[in-house]
Predict the 3D structure of the following.
Amino acid sequence: MASVKILLRKKINKDGQFPLCIQIIKNRKTSIIHVGQSINVQDWDETRQKVRKTHPNHNQLNNFLIKKLTEANSKYLELSTEMGLVSARRIRSELKSEKVSSFFAQANIYLDELKKSGKYNRYSADKPRINRFREFLKGEDIFFSEISISLINKFKAYLKGTREISDRTVINHLVVIRSIFSQAIKAELVDSKYYPFGKGKIQIKFPESSKISLNIDEVIKLENLVLDNYPNLDHARNLWLLSFYFAGMRISDLLRLRWSDFYNDRLHYSMGKNAKAGSIKVPDKAKSILDKYRSLINSGESIYIFHHLNGLKKPNDKFELQQKIANAVKAIDESLQKLASGMGIIKKLTMHVARHTFGNLSGNKIPIQMLQKLYRHSSITTTIGYQANFINQDTDVALESVLKY
């Protein structure tokens, strides 16, 4: 007969608490299963194997532990009926394959999947958002059934009250919770009736935001800056201008360019975001910048035009690649901000502003279908929505007509 009981591990975890576990002993061999919950030692009644009333969620935790204990005993009886003799290790193995039902246990799975799929940008953004939700809950885990509309509204108020953040940033936190919740429903860990998002519940709608761009005079001023004695600033300026000249090419695509992408006076590349392939004529202004980098070619040193991706340990590792790009963009944006300050530009100058600037200056000059091709948007609706941020001519004329008196 196996002995199955709940115990509090003596080894403290990184949060300063002690993990709750299921202990299985069979034929003097012990196996331990962590249940994904931790508490302070003073909140545990060792004799009764229960969480004391001093813990704010003692009722929920005790119900959870009873459920886990029942599952362990049921699994032992099931395996014993099917197989006769069964080891503690086998019981543990079967139970560990059972699905988790707590939010942060599922959040760890969510983050692991992002990492495995090479999505560094989402991983690095979503991990601190999950940690802020944990901070809000004072380090405690929570069951999906406890994540109510009221709790999410309190979390929104907590974020706004403890940090100077925008409404868009608050929404980004909720998007992560929604994603993890949806993942849990899909995995049949929680009933969809507990889903707190959607019509009549918490609705996620991103607030409109203005897109910063340079005007034509500022672009010309940036082009004409003499930066011979400032190589880092010169390089950042060159990358910004190349992005602008290539119809707002994303920096992630720009840094991955190789000389083999250029032939017949055209640039041929597949966009990293949506894998859309295409080509574009290399403008004369872009050629003059690229020629500077041709003279720096060191055979065998790198397959990329720009140095930022040199030293990749695993070139096919998407996660490492995105991480390297993110670190490079941070340094480039810092240099661009120094340039903006020196030029007297009060706008925040980043690589992404090059894309916005192209959108702004193209205005009504380029047909929307052609802009869709240049941007490599999958849907023309996306292009129309994007350009709507920059085309103000009609409203400007209408306003002017009223004020001319």
